[in-house]
Amino acid sequence: MKIKVTKSKLAGEISVPGSKSHTIRAVAVATLAEGISKIKSPLISGDTLSSLEAAKAFGAEITKEDDVWTVKGIGGVVKPFERTIDMGNSGTSLRIFTGLAATLNFPVTFDGDSSLRTRPMTPVLDALSKLGVEIDSNDGKCPLTIKGPVKGGTTDVDGTSSQFLTSLLFALPLAEDDSEITVRNLNEIPYVHITLDWLERQGIELEHADDLSWVKVKGGQSYKSYERAIPADFSTATFPLVAAAVTGATLKINNLDFTDQQGDKATIDFLEKMGVKVERCEEYTIVSSDGKLKGCEIDLNATPDALPAIAVAACFAEGTTKLVNVAQARIKETDRIDCMTKELTKMGAKITELEDGMIIEGGHTLTGCEVESYHDHRIAMSLAIAGMVAEGETIIKDADAAAVTYPNFIEDFKRLGANISEA
């Protein structure tokens, strides 16, 4: 689907959907748990529905009603199956359920769409292999087959994506023996803390260094059923926040929990550094901007998902903005550094691409044109926000990719006053 976006004046209030990271972790824990779990206010999107498909393949029984997913877990007992589990576009689901599949004593095969088949899996596959797991993959990518059970022991993992470590952390409590992980080059540390929060709530016993350079996990543990409401997604909140910043709007966001571990709440700090005013309250957040942003340097290592939207904000800031220390943005659904550089340059932005980020010379007028989303949800939404300030019409190809994490993006932004329509 193509959408057309023109200059827009935004106002009003919005509630962002639940966290993708929390929802997928919630499904994983509920699947392996003994008994019935209730996941309240989950994100309902392409990625989270992929996690449900994996849960069903493992044998979990799932009921969806009234904004609650009820999951009858398998208690760690999985009956052998031969179907290939289609993870769609969900890298998070693939990595977490690959780890869980390694705890089973029969082979499990995973595959996904063309984008997911490009996502690297070698670090977690190598780490599992050192723990006795048999691996068959397409050069470290999907389609891949895992055969456990993981035995426990000593291993190491490259943390270029935090999801590689998260995969091990969910799997190794179920190993027969204790495990010790040495972690190298760990990025996106807040996402690991989300995982650790879930494990702590489950009573899982483990030890770790303050910098997470090593983790010791006790084997022979299990997961238990629970009830939990999913927090709102700060990664998704990035889009109304940046939209307010660049259009000079005041918006009220109703449901952000600043006590949660999500790293992307730092997006608000970045925008304040650029001159946006933010009022944090217990039940709502008000963001206001006069549209006069200032360039600065921003370290995005912990918040790589914010790169596409912050790059848009930088285009409308006076002076130079440097987005740095975020090389892992190149191994997301797309190479987001390269893709955002190409598409914003088409619109008239002045950008120098770095190996680990971007240098953006702000203050140049952007002009609408036809741009590519590369089937990447965050690129599609970020370019739509750019179109709300650019001169003329911006046409975004494959904009329905937004449904991966924000199915109601277009409808929600229309209610705020955005000029968006199908092209």
What would you note in describing this structure?
It is a single chain. By secondary structure, the chain is α/β, with parallel strands linked by helices. It folds into two domains: 3-16 and 231-422, UDP-n-acetylglucosamine1-carboxyvinyl-transferase, Chain; 20-218, Enolpyruvate transferase domain (UDP-n-acetylglucosamine1-carboxyvinyl-transferase, Chain). It contains twelve helices and 26 strands. It has helices at 20-32, 46-58, 91-101, 122-129, 162-171, 189-201, 234-247, 266-273, 307-315, 336-346, 377-387, 409-416, and strands at residues 3-6, 12-14, 36-40, 61-65, 68-72, 85-86, 107-111, 134-137, 144-147, 153-158, 179-184, 206-208, 214-217, 227-229, 250-253, 277-280, 285-288, 293-294, 297-299, 317-318, 320-324, 350-354, 357-361, 370-372, 394-397, 419-422. A four-stranded mixed β-sheet has the order 24-25-1-26, covered by helices on one side. A four-stranded mixed β-sheet has the order 2-15-17-16, with helices on one face. Helix 1 (20-32) packs parallel to helix 6, helix 5 packs parallel to helix 6 and helix 7 (234-247) packs parallel to helix 9 (307-315).
